[in-house]
Design a protein that fits this description.
The chain has five helices and no strands. The chain is mainly α. It has one domain: Arc Repressor Mutant, subunit A (Orthogonal Bundle).
């Protein structure tokens, strides 16, 4: 059995979808817990193009990265 088939059977999605979810979830965590600029977060999770990152993030989370940050930003510990 080919590796992509094994991956699909075990994770119920293809590798590209799985990787995209990992990247976007990590980006969401960074948006909540840091004040890094969005373009640096996009770069750090593997997106070279911020427009593409914004589009995919909105499709996955139903909010733009800046909207997500405003809504879910964790208050800094004092």
């Amino acid at each position: 059995m080919r590796i992509h088939r094994l991956f699909s059977v075990n994770f119920k999605e293809n590798f590209s979808q799985y990787l995209k979810k990992l990247r976007l979830n990590h980006a969401a965590e960074l948006l909540q817990t840091t004040s890094q600029p969005i373009n640096l977060i996009a770069e750090s999770v593997g997106y070279r193009n911020q427009v593409n990152f914004n589009r995919q993030f909105k499709q996955y989370k139903q909010l733009t990265p800046s909207q997500y940050r405003k809504k879910y930003k964790v208050a800094a510990a004092v």
